[in-house]
TrEMBL record:
<dbReference type="GO" id="GO:0005525">
    <property type="term" value="F:GTP binding"/>
</dbReference>
<keyword id="KW-0342">GTP-binding</keyword>
<keyword id="KW-0690">Ribosome biogenesis</keyword>
<keyword id="KW-0862">Zinc</keyword>
<dbReference type="InterPro" id="IPR010914">
    <property type="entry name" value="RsgA_GTPase_dom"/>
</dbReference>
<feature type="binding site">
    <location>
        <position position="264"/>
    </location>
    <ligand>
        <name>Zn(2+)</name>
    </ligand>
</feature>
<feature type="domain" description="EngC GTPase">
    <location>
        <begin position="80"/>
        <end position="231"/>
    </location>
</feature>
<dbReference type="InterPro" id="IPR027417">
    <property type="entry name" value="P-loop_NTPase"/>
</dbReference>
<dbReference type="GO" id="GO:0046872">
    <property type="term" value="F:metal ion binding"/>
</dbReference>
<dbReference type="InterPro" id="IPR012340">
    <property type="entry name" value="NA-bd_OB-fold"/>
</dbReference>
<dbReference type="InterPro" id="IPR004881">
    <property type="entry name" value="Ribosome_biogen_GTPase_RsgA"/>
</dbReference>
<comment type="subunit">
    <text>Monomer. Associates with 30S ribosomal subunit, binds 16S rRNA.</text>
</comment>
<keyword id="KW-0699">rRNA-binding</keyword>
<dbReference type="GO" id="GO:0005737">
    <property type="term" value="C:cytoplasm"/>
</dbReference>
<feature type="binding site">
    <location>
        <position position="270"/>
    </location>
    <ligand>
        <name>Zn(2+)</name>
    </ligand>
</feature>
<feature type="binding site">
    <location>
        <position position="257"/>
    </location>
    <ligand>
        <name>Zn(2+)</name>
    </ligand>
</feature>
<dbReference type="GO" id="GO:0019843">
    <property type="term" value="F:rRNA binding"/>
</dbReference>
Amino acid sequence: MTETPLRPARIVAAFGRSYLADTGEGPPRPCVARGKRSEVVCGDQVLLRLGQDPAVIETLLPRRNALWRQDAWRSKMFAANLDLVLVVTAAEPTPNLELVGRALIAAQSEDIPSALVLNKRELPGTARLREMLQPLQSAGYPIIEVSARQAPDEAAAILRQKLDGRIGMLIGASGVGKSTLVNALVPGLRIQTQAISAALNAGRHTTTATRLYMLEGLAPGSGLLDSPGFQAFGLNQLSVSQLQHAFPEIARLNGTCRFNNCTHRQEPGCAVRTAVEAGELATSRYALYLRVLQELLNEAETRPTA
């Protein structure tokens, strides 16, 4: 029997080993991965075998990038082939700037452009939060201020400009208004979510899945990837060198320390510590660097040797 030809597609919804794939023709198709364990994530480009229901993912094509978080207990890939990461924060609930900083590190380590979305700008605590975000803005991360609840059309228009021709991902802690932003950006979201739930046969559990919504009215290929909120972001997948390059303000100083293998902690002639002492590098950013660095060193010490 002749096998059906393979069709290129993009994964637009993922839950366990069940997926939806967009082939560019008709509605997304339900599909499954071969084998017991799947490494396919939302945003992946794949080759599908369509001659059965559900279709089968035969080949995972090479990724341009992938967004990860990893701690001592588990590793989690969010999405692949991103053009933009939008990290959402707000004055309420209490801002989790640790999570914001770590999400930016993860994106930077994969060379994915990032920006901050300061939501709920109408709240009285926004002025203080704006000051707290200043070190990130000085490091080169743009800050986009919106009010998804009070001015959803304006918020959608601003973010659609950023997403035109790009696949972007919204990430952030629970409660920062991410879902309200997604609702503003994706008309008919409830209908699309229900269709995904039915196709994946996953019911209410798809609220915990990652989904990619293509954005109409923008350049072809424009899309928004939505994922559940989270409260922790481990970075154990990084090497020390990757970490140093994931801080733009530290990366600019790499190679200027006395020692080539400087960890920027206690070594003499460290250009990074000199910049901190001179007020040219924010102490909050340097403190985050030291915290993540210590986690990586601890992980290296506990990793079993071959």
